[in-house]
Design brief:
Length: 356
């Protein structure tokens, strides 16, 4: 009996990593118009759900689709939750993304942003995926691209997460795959309104809503200076009509990070002790996308100019529980452990539970 127990434990341990990557990762070569020559790789978990969500995971400079597939938690999370992951690959030497040309900064402009949009369209059709649950995340150059996709294809993406990027349009040089060193060095500063106008000009005539966005950045980043965080927050605050944060959540998602909640569509996560490589919080990402933890559908209304005044959802009588998005548990947490109705305190990891 002991022996058979041990064998099943051993089997569970041995099999887990194999089971965790049981899906298929492969290149797709017929996804549609691809004038910029970007490549498409797709991860299809064996546990694929019907009408699945799609996550686009965009690699950094020097990265590849394969390296990003291996180094990020999304394929495993796809196994767990049954969604598809698209890993686009940059066609350029050095594998940064084109976030600097007029074409890529234009809806249907025919450059990298359009190639990625076509990968999404192909996947929606081929897998009968859920057009209302298409998400994007990226690191560094991939984060820049995630911001660009939010600006150029706001109707395609429901939610976005950027790990250490720059605002959409900040890297503009007018050349393909250019490097804007003023932006990288944090020397580009604009008003929220100017940023918002630049975003709107990337998809002229569009009056629909923009995706909800989370921005991570390290306070000691010397590659893409931290001012890019502040400018990105300003950019999307301009789009959503937010001003100052309605909530500041220290030690969130864990010690060394502060979460700033500007409204239902915008959060910033400032990593005091990190440079350019901010860790990926895969479980939290699933919550922002609404893949787990119930609906995170925006309640701010259909307009891109909705004004949510600071404090409208943050004020709650003392003792009545934590507000939406607020922390409600985790190692070292001494604040409220219940949530205002209808939010539920939901375990994220040992460091962090959140009202969602
Ligand atoms: C896109 O271009 C790349 C590089 O030329 C190629 O490998 C890929 O097959 C192309 N895909 C499509 C759909 O044209
Ligand atoms: C950028 O935002 C962070 C977090 O809110 C803040 O600590 C920092 O002082 C801001 N930097 C600038 C230049 O405003």
């Amino acid at each position: 009996m002991f022996a058979s127990l041990w064998i099943s434990v051993l089997l569970a341990v041995l099999c887990h990593p194999l089971l965790a990557s049981a899906g298929t990762y492969s290149q797709v070569t017929n996804f549609g118009a691809n004038s910029s020559g970007a490549k498409m790789y797709l991860y299809v978990p064996t546990s694929l759900k019907s009408n699945p969500a799609i996550l686009v995971a965009v690699h950094h400079c020097q990265g590849t689709a394969q390296s990003y597939y291996g180094s990020t938690p999304y394929a495993k999370l796809a196994d767990q939750y049954g969604f598809l992951v698209i890993y686009p690959e940059s066609p350029y030497s050095g594998t940064c993304w084109d976030v600097s040309s007029t074409a890529t900064l234009t809806h249907e402009g025919g450059a990298n942003s359009n190639s990625i949009a076509n990968m999404v369209r192909y996947t929606l059709t081929t897998y009968k995926a859920d057009a209302s649950r298409v998400f994007v995340q990226g690191g560094s150059s991939g984060a820049m691209m995630a911001n660009v996709l939010a600006a150029t294809y706001p109707d395609m993406f429901a939610a976005v997460i950027v790990y250490s990027g720059v605002p959409a349009g900040c890297f503009y040089t007018g050349t393909v795959n250019g490097w804007n060193s003023d932006c990288a060095q944090g020397k580009v500063s604009k008003s929220a309104q100017d940023w918002a106008t630049q975003v709107r000009n990337m998809y002229k005539g569009y009056t629909g809503k923009y995706p909800r966005i989370q921005i991570y950045h390290g306070a000691t980043d010397t590659t893409l200076r931290p001012n890019n965080y502040n400018e990105t927050i300003k950019e999307w605050s301009g789009i959503f009509g937010y001003s100052s944060p309605m909530q500041v959540l220290p030690s969130t998602p864990r010690s060394g990070f502060t979460k700033y909640v500007y409204g239902p569509n915008l959060q910033g996560i400032w990593a005091s002790n990190y440079g350019h490589n901010v860790p990926i919080f895969g479980d939290d990402d699933m919550k922002w996308y609404g893949i787990v933890g119930g609906s995170t559908t925006t309640t701010a209304g259909p307009s891109s100019t909705t004004t949510t005044t600071a404090g409208t959802t943050a004020t709650s009588p003392p003792g009545s529980g934590q507000v939406q998005w607020g922390q409600c548990g985790g190692i070292g947490w001494t604040g409220p452990t219940t949530c205002v109705s209808p939010y539920k305190c939901t375990y994220s990891n040992d460091w962090y539970s959140q009202c969602i």
